[in-house]
Amino acid sequence: MKKILCICLLAGSLSYATTDMNSRQSVQKKRIATVTRGDVKIIEATENIRFLSQQIVKEYLFLFVTPQKEAVKAKVKKRLVTLSNNIRMIAATTKDVDSKDILEFLAYSKDQIAQTLTEEITEENAALMLDYSETLLEGADSIAAAHAYDFSSEERMLMATKQMEYLIERIMKYYMALHVGFDNPTNQNQMNKSIAQFGNKLQDIEAYTYPKEIGGVKSKILKSWYANGFYLGKSETLFIPKLMLISTAHLEDLIVKIALYHNQNQ
Question: What keywords appear on the UniProt entry (predicted)?
């Protein structure tokens, strides 16, 4: 009960901070000429946090269906170290007051995830983990908005690949949630929405003209997504978590290759 109260207070405080930041941004022009390397690093870190916020909870939900619980927990603990490193990097770089406040909420959520890993795997704890993931996501989005700048064309493509990686993790988080006790319209809608968003980002990749060797990777991504999409569409009657996790991990590996191309092409 205490944890649930903390989550409610946390969500309320984060919403207030986000609203206050948005009101400030409404009277500020987007910084283009004054963008710094620090802003770029912060945007990169927020993308990492978005990705990890979904990946960590997806893997926690996998604990309900795998006998290899200690191995999965060890993996999640490593993700938490990476999450902590990204939070610290932003804290050491940002000068934005609202971002510093939001970082406190992110650090709290990260600590609560670590604590939950030491406790029994229950539906109550899983529900809290789902809440923590959304808090991390909302906080990362707010910090990114405070350091936004106009991307170059290659940066936009790089960001598209990062968003695709995040969306795969989000899709799989809800795929797992729907089958371990959280089968409700909200979670189903969130999964469907993420699938549609991934499809939109994939269109950006499909429309881009790549050199021959990278074009081959693009073709593999399209085929992989078609196969994954087929089984996601049958998820109500066919639950194959281990196979889907392996398959989507392969899809992410392919997307990373596209991301590397755009990163080097800036």
Answer: Signal
**Residues making up the chain, counted from first to last:** 266
Instruction: State the CATH architecture for 1-20+35-149.
Output: Up-down Bundle (1.20)
- For the chain, the structural domain boundaries read 1-20+35-149, 151-175+183-266
Number of H helices, E strands in the chain: 9, 0
pLDDT tens string, the chain, 266 residues long: the values are 546 545 554 555 555 555 555 555 443 444 444 667 889 999 999 999 999 999 999 999 999 998 888 999 999 999 999 999 999 999 999 999 999 999 999 999 999 999 999 999 999 999 999 999 999 999 999 999 999 999 999 999 999 999 999 999 999 999 999 999 999 999 999 999 999 999 999 999 999 999 998 999 999 999 999 999 999 999 889 999 999 999 999 999 999 999 999 999 87
pTM of this structure = 0.87
Long-range CB pairs of 57-62, under 8 A, 24+ apart, other chains included: 57/113, 57/129, 57/130, 57/132, 57/133, 57/173, 58/169, 58/172, 58/173, 58/176, 60/113, 60/116, 60/117, 60/126, 60/129, 61/126, 61/129, 61/173, 61/176, 61/177, 61/180, 62/176, 62/241, 62/245
CB–CB of 230/213 below 8 Å?
A: no
SS3 59: helix
Side chain identity at 204, as an amino acid letter?
A: D
